[in-house]
Every structure is written in C-alpha cells, then in structure tokens.
Description:
mainly beta
Amino acid sequence: xxxxxxxxxxxxxxxxAASMHAxxxxxxxxxxxxxxxxxxxxxxxxxxxxxIIAKATGLAKILSRGRIEVYESEGKVVNGRxxxxxxxxxxxRLGKQRLKEYYFDHRKKRVTYVETRYRxxxxxxxxxxxxxxxxxxxxxxLYFNIPMIIEDCSKPFNQFLKAVGAEKNTGRVKVETVxxxxxxxxxxxxxxxxxxxxVTVYQKLFGSKGGELYxxxxxxxxxxxxxxxxxxxxxxxxxxxxxxxxxx
Length: 248
C-alpha cells in the first residue's frame, strides 16, 4: 500500500481556499478499487495545514494488514506560497506505529528529523538526525506550490525540484508540463483537462518504470485524474477525484 500512496499523495493540487476536502479512489488493474485517499487543507493569510489520510480497501487491505498512512504538513503562508515548518509521516498497522517528524530550519538551510516506533502504544525506539540535503518544501507543500512555480502550464517547463518525503538521499523530483503531441496522447487516458503534468519521483513506486505519474488538473488546479504508468505485471494504477468541497 505504501508505494501507491507515495505516488497518489501528489494528486491533491492547489486550492486558494480557507478549507478544502478532496477524496480520491485508487484503482489497480484487474483488482479494481484498492484504496481511498482523503486530502484536507486549512489555510488563512498566515498559516496552513495539509493532512492526507490513506486507507487500503478490499484485497489490498488484507494484504497490507489494515495499514493506514497519515501525512501532515504545517507551516506559514508567505506571499501566497506555503512554507513548511514541520512534516509528519505516521504509518500504522497491527498495533505497530512508525512516526517520523521533519523540522525545517530555513534560515540555516537544514532539515532535522525524529523517528519513533511504537508497539501496542509502548515506545520501542527513538532516533534523530539531519537529512543529507536541504529542501524548501515537503512533498505536500511542493505540489500545492507547483502552479506558482510553473506559472503557465501551456508553456514548456522541465525542472528538477526538491522535497522532503521524495527521494531518500536527495529529495529529487522532476516536474514537466505535458504539451503538444504528448498532450494529445494523454487525453484519451486522462480526459480533457486545463493542465497536464508529468511528475517523476525517483523511488520504486510499486515497480513502475521510473515512477512516472501523469496528472490532469482542472482550471482551479485540483487534480481530477492521475495515472502511474507501467507498473510491472499489472499495467497502470489510476486515481480519480470522487468528492470535493471547499469554503472561501
């Protein structure tokens, strides 16, 4: 379950709203629905909080032993951009919990972390350290900031970016706008959209070739569909927006 979650965390998109809630259904080849991912954003002029909750369903729930993953990003809003101060990964299953918290020091350009492991609510271990790289974003804040970074989705954009929670040693993520011939090829797969993006996450995302994720965004920058291409043995993993609401 963890591999597809890392990919479909990227589906949330940007909303300039006081609060929003989006739900995505994740499907995997012949197995059909394998999970639900809920995304929440609360934001005012100075602060924001993003929370993602992902749960497996059906056969995937059995195979993952009821695994639940929660990702959170909290920080400030500076000139319309989300600037994270803390990023959390909380993974639970069968009475076990692994919590990893990342702390951003943007002035000193470093990110530290504390990792704790629990079993039946009893502390088992604790460790801490400093990441070998610095990133301005975590994987959640980055994708809420992407439209500001790209500016114009109709124009070519192809850059390596960094985010805590992406590639383990470098935080590297590649973001490209999909234009011209490639755009026409993706339309039958993703449907009509205001913007198409290709995101390469340098992890082994469920055995996919290079972790290539294609996103179709609405005009308000909410991702409506996503496809993780060429997963070994099963083809594509697909994600679709099934619920969305917001308050201004």
